[in-house]
Structures are given as C-alpha cells and as structure tokens.
Amino acid sequence: MEKINILLVDDHRIMLDGIESMLQNSQYNIVGLCANGEEAWTWINANEDKVNIVITDISMPLMNGIELCKKIKATYHHINVLMLSMYNSAAAVDEVLQAEADGFILKNASKVEFINALHKIQNGGTYFSQEIIPFLYKQIIAERKKEMELGVLTQREKEILEMIALEFTSDEIASKLFISKKTVDNHRTNMLQKTHCKSTIGLVKFAIRNGIVSS
Amino acid sequence: MEKINILLVDDHRIMLDGIESMLQNSQYNIVGLCANGEEAWTWINANEDKVNIVITDISMPLMNGIELCKKIKATYHHINVLMLSMYNSAAAVDEVLQAEADGFILKNASKVEFINALHKIQNGGTYFSQEIIPFLYKQIIAERKKEMELGVLTQREKEILEMIALEFTSDEIASKLFISKKTVDNHRTNMLQKTHCKSTIGLVKFAIRNGIVSS
DNA sequence: ATGCAAATAGGTATATGTACCCATATTTTT
DNA sequence: AAAAATATGGGTACATATACCTATTTGCAT
User: Fold this and answer.
1) pLDDT tens per residue, range A37-84
2) pTM greater than the 0.85 cutoff
3) Could you tell me the end-to-end alpha-carbon distance of chain A, in angstroms, rounded to an integer?
4) Which of the residues A61, B44, B82, B161 has the least number of beta carbons within 10 Å of its own beta carbon?
5) How far is A75 from chain B (nearest CA, A)?
6) CB distance from A145 to chain B under 8 Å?
7) Interchain CB distance below 8 Å, B22 and A14
8) Sheet bearing B4-9, strands edge to edge
9) What is the rounded CA–CA span in Å between residue B55 and residue B44?
10) Which is nearest to B81 in space by CA: B100, B67, B63?
C-alpha cells in the first residue's frame, strides 16, 4: 500500500510527539514537522509534491492554522488539510469552515477517531468531530441572529450609529456627512424603534454587540 | 535509584501519550492516568501514599487543574504539583500562583525542560517556565491598569454607572437609590471628568470595557 | 484636630436627544 | 406600474444631560 505523506504543524512539541506516535506503524508517513504556519508555508512551497495531507493546529505564532489553510487551499488544490483545535469554540468552527479545511477534530480525539478522520480526508472526503456538530448549529444560529439583528438597520443607519458610538453628537455627524442635523435625528429615532432601544445608550450597546465599534 | 511516582491528569489523550513517552526509561514511574480533576481527586484519596508528583493540565471538564491543585495542597502536603498549560495567559499564571503549585510549564516545553522541572519539584523546589515570566509582568501591569481605570471611580459611582449603562435615566436612578436627581447628575459629571469621557456614551463603553455591564 | 475625599443637594443656563407631527425625492421591491 | 422602503428635511414640544456655580454632612487619615 502506498504511503500517505503528512506534514505536521503544531507549536507544541508534545502534541507533535503524540501524533507521531499515533501514526507509527500506519500507512501514514510523516515527512515534515513545523512549529508554525509561516514555517509550514515555506516548507510546502519547497516540497509541494511531497505532501498529501497537512495536519495543523489552529492557534500558533507568526501564522495560525486558519491562514495557513487558506493559503494552501488557494494554491495547492491537491493538498488536504485537517485542522486540530484544543477547544470547540464557535468562532473556531466558523473560521475553519471559512478556510475550507477538509476536516476539524479536537485534540482530545481518540486514536481511532484520528485515523478515521485521516482516512476520510485522504479519500477526498471531509471529517468533523461529533463534538463539533452542536457547536456548528449554535454558531449558525448565533450568526443568523447577529445578521438579523444587524439586518434591521440600513447602511446609512449603521454608518450613523458608528459615529454615535464614537461619541459624536448629531450636530457633528450632520456636519461630517453634509446633511441636516434633523436628518440625523430622524435616523436616530428610526434606529431606536427598529432596535427596541430606550435611548442612545441602548444603541451603543447594540453597536458594540454587533461589532460596529469596540468598547 | 528509587522511582518517583507520578499521577498524570489531562483530558487530552494525545497529551497523556506524549508525556508518557517522554518519561520512558527515566526515574519517573507513571502510576495513574486521569482525564479530569474529579477523577484525579478520587484517585488520590484512594492512593495518597502511592504518588509523589501530580502533573496536571489546567483546563479540564468537571474539575480543572487549579481546583485540583488547591485541594491537594490543602490536604496532602507531601504531594507536589506541576501545572501544565497550553497557553501562557496572564490569567492562568495568576491562578497557578494562587493555587500554590510547585511548578508551571507550557505544553510546548522541550523534554529537557520537562525533566528539569520534575527534578526541581521532586527535590522540594519550584520551576516556572522562562516563557511565563514576561507574562507575569504583563499580567501584573494589566491588572493594575484595569484596577487603576476602575479605581478612579468610587463604589457609589460604579453603582450609578451600572444603572446608567442599563439605560436608566437620572430620574429613575435617583428614585431607585432614594437620592436627588441632582446628586445623580453630579456623579455623572464627576465620572465624565475622571474617565475623560465626552458623554454618557463614553461612560457606557467604559462600563462595558471594565466588566461593570455586558453589551 | 485638621484636612481631605466622598456623598449629598441646590441653582441656572445651555446642549443634546427624543417624540410626535409633517413632506419630498430616490431607490428598491413587488 | 404601483407600492414600499430609504434618505432627506422641517416644526414643535418636551425630556434628558451637561457645565458651571454653590453648600453641608460624613467618615477617614495625617
């Protein structure tokens, strides 16, 4: 049976050792070890035909696994990527999906699950840990909620809301946008109604909650 | 040479494997493996004289490493604890110190550093990763900064700020606190001055930033 | 004991925001 | 083509917040 070549990317030595020992006496052949995305990206560019699957951690210095995955997927379509993460955070799941990884499993996965994921990926499939699925739903729901919440506002309203949250008064906003203060105030009123807020304070919290500004 | 008995606590199978392989052919003898603090605490209570050093991860389900360490230190003075963490977060460092662990190293530590830490701990000493030191300073500085920022406000001011951020008007706050609206407004003015904010909006962002309310 | 910060409260003036009413031009959707 | 949403602007009244000023009481610290 032909060996599948694997590049291992993780900044934690113990994790590299652990995975290496898991893959001993398997059809998988570790052809490289890198401690971060940048190192890995350089390695891949020099050895693009020597690697079939890249197994990478998400959080790493210099270049994280998400960025690495995006770069790989943009350039080398034949290389498959399995993402590893310590925690099943909703944000992580989302990023992994956006990076178009072929699989995503948690670091506490068993050897069986680990090998299973590699098998699926090697055959052009995908594998996502069972533990991640509920988070995926949560994430999607949260995203939709967020989009829905933000969706009630028009572009102009969001623009004005941002300036409100940056502590500009209606007069100042009017000047900056070359419109009447009255128009700005009308937008305020409409936003208050749309967001069911009592006052500007609620609008500002809405803005922070939805990432229009930071606190 | 007498073997040193070690209990390994980590919810990540790969991590357990990695450490186990590191300690092969050493003076250290792994006498138990646990997946979380609760399991470990039960194990220790049943085998208190069979273990010299507990190596534990920080973040684990049911009972984390910090809690486990505190319990151990409160009951079994002869057992030494080495904490492991994935990340050198400032918060983690602080907690480890409060839990009175004998050592704290990151999971990306080399085998040499790992063994070194065990040697020191086994001889009644302590070991903290070099990488953790700068974070300790950062932590202290960050904490002080936060405390300073919040520290400029009196208890009463924080109380009123919270209510402001919860969208209550001065009149409403006055009623709830059985004081004059004028007093509330004075507190507002004082807070604006102390926090260098332009308006209530700035105060609300200050409140969110400092955890007085959530967005 | 004297001073200082904190919490309390008042006055007055002004600035800013909000709630209603209204209208019109443009764009988007149906 | 008709309807709806969006962006624009006006008027009036009221609500709320902010900037100054002042003062008293309390408690804590030098």
Assistant:
1) 999 999 999 998 899 999 999 888 788 888 899 888 888 888 999 998
2) no
3) 57
4) A61
5) 30
6) no
7) yes
8) B28-34, B4-9, B53-57, B80-85, B103-106, B127-128
9) 12
10) B100
